[in-house]
Amino acid sequence: MKIGPLEVIICAFPKPTIDANVIKALSETVKSGAVALADLVLVSRDREGAVHVRDLHDDLPAAWTGMLLDSRPMTLLNDADVELAAGAIKSNETALVAVLEHRWAQRLSEEVRRSGGVTALQARIPQEEAVVAIEADGVATS
Length: 142
Description:
By secondary structure, the chain is an alpha+beta fold. The chain has five helices and four strands, in the order βαββααβαα. Strands 1-4-2-3 form a four-stranded antiparallel β-sheet, sandwiched between helices. β2 and β3 (51-55) form a beta hairpin. The longest helix is centred in the N-terminal third of the chain and has 13 residues, at 20-32.
């Protein structure tokens, strides 16, 4: 089975719903073919502080389910991922936990494996840290 590198991302929002523009941006990225959505969980904390978890098979709007890579139930996310997301939000807030397959990197990953190589490190530098580093080097940003 061919599969590109997978990444788990958690995005926390200071409100009980996720803005439609966020859903649209993710959908456009998926439709472009750059990434595929392999799994998704929404974690919310109600006003009383109770945590609620919904996945793609829990009656989410079609905007979410239409992005899924495969219609079979996924088991890529686990309780630790949900706990981490729950820890990132306060009462009346929501977190999006997504597993993205980096399809743009699929061929490179295949060639690395075919040649006997391995990916020794895969890390994402947060945008805020990249801006700080670039600004420290005196390079203008926009």
